[in-house]
Amino acid sequence: APDIPVIDQAYSKLSNSITVEWRAVPGATNYMLTAQDGDSFVETIVKSSPGTVTGLKPATLYRITVRSINSGGKSQPSPFRKVKTVLAAPILSVHSPSCDSIAVSWKAVHMAAGFSVSLMRSDGLGRRLKQNTTNTSLIFTNLDPGTLYTIKAYAWNANGMPGDDFTYNQRTSPNAPVDVKVAFNSGALRAVVSWMPTEGALTYSVTVSSGLLKLRCNTSSASCVVPSLQCSSEYYVSVTAHNDAGSSEPTDAVSLKTIPCAPVNISIEEEEPGHLLVSWSSVSLGHYYVVFVKSDDGLEVHCNTSHTQCHFQSDCGFTYFISVFAYNKAGQSPLGDVLNYTTAPCCPSDFRAVFISSDTVRVTWAPVRGADLYETRAAGSSGVVLCRDTATACTLSALQCSAPYNITVFSFSEARGGNTSCAPQHVATAPCSPEIKNISKEGLSVISVQWQPNNEEAMYVVTARGEAGLWHCTSTRNSCTLMDLPCGSAFSVSAIARSPAGQSLPSYSIPLETAPCCPNDLILTQVTQSVTNISWSVGRGAQTYVTTLDSPKGRAKCHTLQTYCLLGCITCGTNYTVSLRAISETGLTSSCTYQGYSSSACCPSGVKLYRLSNNGIRVFWRASDETINYNADLCGSKGNFSCTPSLGLSHCDITKIPCGDVYTVVVAPVTDKGPKLTFCPKKIYSVTCSGSSVGMVIYRGKSNAKHI
């Protein structure tokens, strides 16, 4: 075995080890170091001196021995040395309570009488700070924010022997960022927060708070986007810098007011036709409002106000699209509800009322914008007549005649209903049809017509219509007179009423027949001494005629369908009054009076012929009236002869009458006018020749001859 080593020195530099130095032993290949503490010991084999025993306890007294080793074995232990391990290093707990300070603390170290702590920037800049203390904590102040510092600490014992040291790198917390700026994106409702980078800051956190709501954004850059902000909110934005040492103080809060929310409770009211009132609820953080009103024809107007309502002019029949925006310095609110409002359709224009009859009126108008349906209403004292149609015309029937009506045409739409502001038109219906109560004859060609007046301020027109033409009369009362109606004519009489409102329907027609016309021409011809023929022209409208000859001596009368009549029992030489009655088919009679008629004088009687000495013939008769003159005519084959006596004589002479001939002798009264009477009796006489040129005068009757 090798020789026993001799320890030169033994010492402890670390709290868990002791280093031993000895002189080398020849032939030794290894050495065994032993540190004994009571019953426990620690052995370590090393190659050469010096050697270190590790795994020891700090501040503990050990007995140190060395043994040499070779292939032959181990030597005996060397004489021991007593060595105490140094103090253990304090275990530091370091943090940066502020951006310019570092707090260091540790637990108490066994057998330590005091501690030494030093601090220096890790980059070597600046001076080294050192503090000795018997406490277990201390604070370094006035440091640079966000800077990495190296901290070294150790404990020493009562002899001033330092123990193990402990090194710790600690960064001071960063300073609060500066120049914080907030850019608000109103469209996306997000904010971009930016700041100047802070020394030593590894990350940053942005806090956006509004009441109990807090939004955070973490970043390692110098800006951060905070999304999902609420409208009409005021946020307070602060930025905190962070590193491994801690956090800076938050920056002073920067106020961020977002855009206002879209206005709600929007209402549209049409205060009166043509005026729209748009109102809404007040919006938080809204400084002013803009209302946009766009009509369906593309025209848009707007209104700026700081109040919560706006007035707009509107037109009938339009649809308006209305949106309200709130504004502040941050910008415009989001688009809210877009309301549409359709105004009532326009009132119909170009209103025309045309009366078809007294109780029916046709109303027409021009189509208007926005109207889907029209209602025509006629309001009068008797009630209301309605007509609804999609067309721009309506016929109102069953109206009361001669009555005022307020006719109004209302327009309707499905969106807004009816326009009740349309003005009525005052229209009066045509007069009522009059009712003819009586037709009376005032004269031969004068007819009085009476009716029931059932209209106010109406002019009545009565018309007699027939083949002969038209006859009219007018009156504002209840009767009028038709003048100069032709006789013998049939008429249909009706009446109408006229007023500024129009003309009534005609009344029911009343038939009217005028008396037949008197014949214009009447001729009396005496056929015989007791028979007279009367003839006349046709009387229009007459079916039968009654002719009458009246005289004190009697009457002759004839009723006939013809236009002539023979009247017998006429007294000769008598003056008659002549009358004629024309009678129509219905019994109407016209009494016609004509010029008086005188029957011819009576024919003489006792006509005789006497021969005269000078070949003449005397005609003798008995006159019925001495005041009548007569004429005697003799007609024979040898000649015709006549004579007329002086007034008052009853004979006359015809000279140089040839004999030997038969003569027809007629003595008749002489009339003032007209032809000779031919109905007086004729007598035939034969004038014979007996030795001379004038012979006997013989009267010849039917078969007898009378000789005179």
Model description:
- There is one protein chain.
- This protein is an all-beta fold and 708 residues long.
- The chain has eight domains: 6-84, Immunoglobulins (Immunoglobulin-like, Sandwich), CATH 2.60.40.10; 92-171, Immunoglobulin-like; 178-257, Immunoglobulins (Immunoglobulin-like, Sandwich); 264-342, Immunoglobulins (Immunoglobulin-like, Sandwich), CATH 2.60.40.10; 352-428, Immunoglobulin-like; 435-513, Immunoglobulins (Immunoglobulin-like), CATH 2.60.40; 522-599, Immunoglobulin-like, CATH 2.60.40; 605-700, Immunoglobulin-like (Sandwich), CATH 2.60.40.10.
- It is built from no helices and 64 strands.
- The strands form 16 sheets. Strands 59-58-61-62-63-64 form a six-stranded antiparallel β-sheet, with no helix packed on it.
- Strand 63 and strand 64 (705-707) form a beta hairpin.
- Residues 691-696 and 702-708 have low confidence and may be disordered.
